[in-house]
Each structure stands twice: as C-alpha cells, then as structure tokens.
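Weekly structure sync, notes
Attendees: PL (lead), two postdocs, one rotation student
Agenda item 3: pending single-chain targets
PL asked that the sequence for the first pending target be pasted directly into the notes so everyone works from the same version. It is reproduced below exactly as submitted, 448 residues in total.
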Amino acid sequence: MTPAEALEALRAVERRDGPLPLDRRAALLDALAAMLLREADAIAAAVDADFGGRSVEETLLADVKLVVDAARHARRHLRRWARPRRAGVPLAFWPARAAVEPVPKGVIGIMAPWNYPVQLLLLPAVDAIAAGNRVALKPSEAVPGTAALLAALLPAALGEDVVRVVTGGPAVAADFAALPWDHLVFTGGTATGAKVMRAAAEHLVPVTLELGGKCPAVVLPGADLAGAARAIMAGKAINAGQTCVAPDTVLLVGHGRDAFIAACRASGVALPETAVLNERQAARLDALCDGAALTPLGAAAGVGRRRAILLAEAPPGAALHLGEIFGPVLALQPLATLGDAIAWIAARPAPLAIYLFGATAEQERAVAAGTKSGAIVHGRCVEYAAFTGLPFGGVGASGFGRRNGEAGFLEFSSLRARVRDGGRFSLARLLDPPRSDRARALVRRLLR
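Predicted structure, written out during the meeting:
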C-alpha cells in the first residue's frame, strides 16, 4: 500500500462514518493495550533481531509497557478531555453562552524512527485515536522485521478503518511527508525534520516534530558525585545511548575530572545491554569522536556493535560538541561556575531536556530563567519521558508540539468555539447598525 492509498482509504471511511465516537475510541485503546501485552515477546524478538542485540527488558519496558500505560491513561481520562468547556462571555453580550469543544482533526500521519520503533510510532497514535482521529503509520525502514510485524498486528487489532501501516524506504517516507494529512507527526533528526516540515508546508499541514539535541547533565558542587554519576551512566546506558533524551554532555562544575571518572567507573554501569543499531551508526559515532580523547568508563569490552560507554573530551569546536552523539559516548566539559554552564547551554539549540544534579532551588530557577528546553529534570535522566500525564516535546531545533496525556489529546484536536445567542436583548445590540448619534458617542466613551 502506498502512502496516498492509505490516506485515501482512511479519508473514504471518514466521509462515510464521520469521526470516531467516544465509545469506539475507548474500545480501540483497550484493544491496543491488550494486543501489545499479548504480543510482547514477539515484539521483543523482532526488535532484538533488527538491532543485532537489543535488551529484551528495554523493549518490554520502553516499547511495550510505556505505550500500554499511555493507552490506559488516555482511556481513564478520555471523557473528561473530550467534554466541551464553558468559556467566559463579556458582560455586553450577556445572556449569550459560549463553550470550547475539542473536535477530531481527521486523518493523522505518523512517521517514526528506529531507536524506539514501537513506542515512537504508537504513543502519538494513542493521542490521535483518543482525540477521535484515524491514523496512517510509517515505521522506520531501518528495523524491517519490527515494521513488518506491526504492519500485520495493528490493522488486525484496531481495524483497517482506523489504522493503515505503510512500509518502505526513504522514497516512501518522502511521499508520506508530502501528502495533505490533517496533521503530520515526525520523530527523528533535526535536519530530516526540516525537510519534513518543508514538504508539509506545501499543503499547510500542521506538524508535530520531536527532534534531537545535546541534552546536558549539569553536575554542581552540591551534588553527591557518586549518585550523579550513576544516574548519568544509567541514562546513557539505556538503549546504548540511542535515545533523544539521553544525557549527551556532562557540564562538570566544582568537581574534579578524575573524581567524576572514578565515580562513573564505580557505578558498575559500563556495558549497555543493547547494541548500536548498524555499521552506519557505528561509523557515524567514530567520526564524531575523531580527534577526541577517549576514556573507557569500565573494564568491560563490547562485542561487535555492543560497545562500552566511553568518556570523550575534545576542544570546543570539535565535531563531538556540534552534533547530537546518540550513542554510548559521553562528552565531558569541565566549567568553573553555574553561570558558565548556563552560557554553554544558551549558546546552543534548545535541548529536549536539561538534567541537574545538586542544584538548590535558587540555582534551578537560574537555569530555568537563563535557558530554553523541553524539560528540566533534577536528580535522574531519561525516565521522565515515561510520565504518562506529562507533556513531552522540544523547543526550536529539538522540535515543537506536545504529546502524551491531555496535551497529546489537544495536539490532535481542533478547538472549535460554540456560541448560543441569549435572546432578543444584550447591551451590545445598542451598537447595531444603523447607529444613532448616541451609539456613536457610546463607542467613543468605551474607548476611553
């Protein structure tokens, strides 16, 4: 099935049946959660094969359970989210009544990357279906086994009148991005996100972009170094650092480099349970690290694409500090003060997340005031992305739009104003044309 065929098939159903009613949305969310739990082992096996070594537990938690939790959360709150909400009416228009109702946008196109091939395809789908939309899904061609499995499972579980799955390579992805969807979601790199946005602009399609960035971990003098190092290493080890919110660069303030390295080694987190996806990604990492001083953070050695975490240090203009690392390499930048750390962050595109360790309330306020980011997280890394009720997204080059929970529901809804006139009289009608001299004088008085 081509992207255009998927769009037209879903549009035809929409024309025939209209938006998804609330009861159907609830049933679909239940069915999605049940299918994922039933097929969890098959999904983990497919992802493992595509990666050439992917932790089963990471797939079960990040790609299966996280989506199940999101579907159940949406199911619980669906009726409240979908309820029209009263809006204020200015005194001059009383006794009119006004409300805002969320209306389904229609057919949503969703393009997912390879690093969390189930989660990043289906979390936006949960939000879109909860909002009453139908969805066309484009999984990444870099994980062909997982894409084929999802193409078989999703229409069977949810029905082809609700979901279509389109598989294929870059040419298919380009065709997908160029179609007149009612909303388009893309998760991936910033450069590709810009291309997707240009394609969507041809049809004035609204877009949600979840992109990348260099998420800094700021370790301040008040931090427990052992605890901070363990949290950073754990965040970097998840999915071998192939996570958009993985800690990218450690900004070390008030602690010695050698002490931090010792703390990282003492954490016992050195060898990720997941491999770098393929040789192309491995070569990209090697190029980023060219010219950097590399320090192993554990004695364990990787096998093939399963690599131990390395600490990397390079001059400010090196490639390591320009692009998102997206792998088991942790950049280190010692700095003198919190002000230097804030300046370092502010000088770069806004990241998805800033991680703080040892920050006082005043220091956290200073970081919030002096930087932009999708999130500020104190004490841990990465796991905030699993908070089902927390809006998730970036700023500027790290993306825009929000998914998850009520924010995701609203992302895929059009907010329609509903107004009912209150009767034959309101103060505003004194100004209806044809206007008397008295009405014209009243207009001037109102402006004063």
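Discussion points:
- The chain has two domains: 3-211+398-415, 216-388.
- The longest strand covers residues 97-104.
Action: rotation student to compare against the earlier draft before next sync.
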